UniProtKB/TrEMBL annotation:
Source organism: Sphingomonas paeninsulae
GO biological process: L-leucine biosynthetic process
Requisite cofactors: [4Fe-4S] cluster
UniProt superkingdom: Bacteria
Name of the protein: 3-isopropylmalate dehydratase
Subunit (UniProt): Heterodimer of LeuC and LeuD.
Length: 467
């Protein structure tokens, strides 16, 4: 086998070539959540079609669920409960594995899949959710689809897919102290723009990527959809194998050894050709924060709001102007020191145990500034329980954060959980679109460290000054 890692996985899963651009591909796993998955399951049931491989389809509750302690099926937005109950009923009727509310394995779909070893190196995995690219960090070909395609994948374990072009982004050298995978992702977005990856499967490689721990790699891959990539992938290495070993759905016994031997072949060959290649020097990257209404509108922390000239290669004038007005900021004004109303640590980007540990290190012995609504939502119930076992929740609570049940929560105004109108939020999430965290909210994306430091300062702050 020669070629890129993508080509190797694709070729192993190609069933037929449909035309010059499109193949029929075997789908190993289908993941569903209640916001889009229930619709697919119900439609399938209405058509009288069974799920072809029910033991390879997994369902969780994450998007609209209440994350306040003591939750039930009730949601803040009255329509939310119907999504939960319909998805539950359909998942049970179809005989799928369901991580329901109250289950210790429940959580955000892209967080629990690696935790449970549902995603494995070399598998094809789809989910009706754009951040499925997160799971490419495990060396899988994982991508987001629509509900209709999910229905097709459930019924047939196949999908017709337009073969993406290949891009490699090498990041070599060492990240500067205090620079995280989130900063790296925002840096790439500021370079490539929100459509820079369109049509590509992006392989992240290079010494700086190899040096990232697995959860940081998930953060990096998570934001590939923000530059419109088909997905992202990183060649699996010992960090991936060590992480997976012994987890619920990982191969066991002799199967494990066979699996590892095949996973070790999943890397791009030295002479593999990519349709596009870029090289980034890790030492050029600084902690980042977004100032606008698109994730590409990000600058190094400490830099002022950029003037239009410096972003004109990516931002259209109307997007730029709209961003300044919506965010209530002006070109040239410093972002550090901009007062915030709220701070949010959560989402499939940055709510894993390592994220919470790093934020807690900053919060230890400190207090959230008066008037700041600070909330931490662990990415899964498993993350919450492990965090509680090591006492992290006490650090968050003592600092003045709310400590919640797991779910998407204020990443996305779907179940009704939101910050207030016009409130400025520093957030560890991946999208700063208008009204993303509730009607009229103004979101600044950053690392969990920057969110924690800003919560303490009551204004956007540089975590390196507190470290
Ligand atoms: C609701 C879902 C379809 C959506 C997505 O596809 O990403 C959501 O998870 C998001 O982050 O905006
Ligand atoms: S945490 Fe946010 S980005 Fe991730 S799946 Fe949920 S809503 Fe989408």
């Amino acid at each position: 086998m020669t070629g890129t890692i993508f080509e190797k996985i694709w070729d192993m899963h190609r069933i037929a070539t449909i035309d010059e651009t499109t193949d029929l591909v075997l789908i190993d796993r289908v993941l569903l959540h209640e916001r889009t998955g229930g619709v697919a399951l119900e439609s399938l049931a209405a058509a009288g079609r069974p799920v072809r491989a029910p033991n390879q389809a997994f369902v969780t509750m994450d998007h609209v669920v209440d994350t306040r302690p003591g939750r039930t099926d009730a949601t803040i937005m009255p329509t939310g409960t119907a999504f939960i109950t319909a998805t539950r009923d359909a998942a049970i009727a179809a005989g799928l594995t369901l991580f329901d509310l109250g289950d210790p394995d429940q959580g955000i779909v892209h967080v629990i899949s690696p935790e449970q070893a549902i995603v494995l190196p070399g598998v094809t995995l789809v989910c009706p959710d754009s951040h499925t690219c997160t799971q490419g960090a495990m060396g899988a070909l994982a991508w987001g689809i629509g509900s209709t395609a999910a229905e097709h994948a459930l019924a047939t374990s196949t999908l017709r897919v337009k073969r993406p072009k290949t891009m490699r982004i090498r990041i070599d050298g060492q990240l500067v102290q205090g620079v995280t995978a989130k900063d790296l992702a925002l840096h790439l977005l500021s370079l490539f723009g929100s459509s820079g990856g369109s049509g590509y499967i992006v392989e992240y490689a290079g010494t700086a990527v190899e040096a990232l721990d697995l959860e940081a790699r998930m953060t990096l891959c998570n934001m590939a959809t923000e530059f419109a990539a088909f997905s992202a992938i990183i060649a699996p290495d010992d960090k991936v194998f060590d992480y997976l070993k012994g987890r619920a759905y990982a191969p066991k016994g002799a199967d494990w050894d066979v699996a590892i031997a095949s996973w070790r072949l999943l890397r791009s060959d030295a002479d593999a050709a990519f349709d596009a290649e870029y090289a980034i020097d890790a030492s050029d990257i600084a902690p980042m924060v977004t100032w606008g209404i698109s994730p590409q509108q990000a600058v190094a922390l400490g830099k002022p709001v950029p003037g239009f000239e410096s972003v004109a290669s990516r931002d259209q004038r109307d997007l730029y102007d709209r961003a300044l007005t919506y965010m209530d900021i002006e070109a040239g004004m410093p972002l550090i020191g901009l007062p915030i109303d709220a701070a949010f640590i959560g989402s499939c980007t940055n709510s894993r145990l390592s994220d919470l540990r790093r934020a807690a290190a900053i919060l230890t012995g400190r207090k959230v500034a008066a008037g700041v609504n600070a909330i931490c939502v662990p990415g899964s119930t498993g993350v919450r329980l492990r965090a509680e076992a090591e006492g992290l929740h006490r650090i968050f609570l003592d600092a003045g954060f709310e400590w919640r049940e797991s779910g998407c929560s204020m990443c996305f105004f779907a179940g009704g959980e939101s910050f207030g109108h016009r409130q400025r939020v520093i957030s560890s999430t991946n999208r700063n679109f208008e009204s993303r965290q509730g009607p009229g909210t103004r979101s600044h994306l950053a690392s969990p460290e920057t969110v924690a430091a800003s919560a303490i300062a009551g204004a956007i702050a540089d975590p390196r000054e507190l470290a």
